[in-house]
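Bump. Still looking for Endocuticle structural glycoprotein SgAbd-2 structure tokens.
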Amino acid sequence: MKFIVALAFLAVALAAPQGDKKPIEIVSSNSEMNADGSYSFDFESADGTKVSESGNQKQVGPKPEDIGTVSKGSYSFTTPDGVVLTVNWVADENGFQATGDHLPTPPPMPEHVVKMLADLKAAGVL
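Sorry for the wait, here they are.
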């Protein structure tokens, strides 16, 4: 679901009025959809923007009907100051997880919290 929301935001951002700017040419585009539900697509535009995604159906729960689409991909673009930013992502039964050198990451867990969690796990509470 988060993946769909992310794509919706991307679509809205791309559809926003561009003023008098000319459209950016797509220099390559590929897509594949298979009978088993797997798919892949990628494209690159003349401004260096690149998008790639692939996915397939996967059993994500204990019941036969617990089937979902798991996807992974990346996108990169150049900022106005010339820096290329790349985001790699996975969307699966664990949710949407994006990584990139420019994205913030949480600080390491304090040692006392690590010890407390280990103690709770050893006691069978977790």
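Residues 23-121 form one domain.

Edit: fixed formatting.
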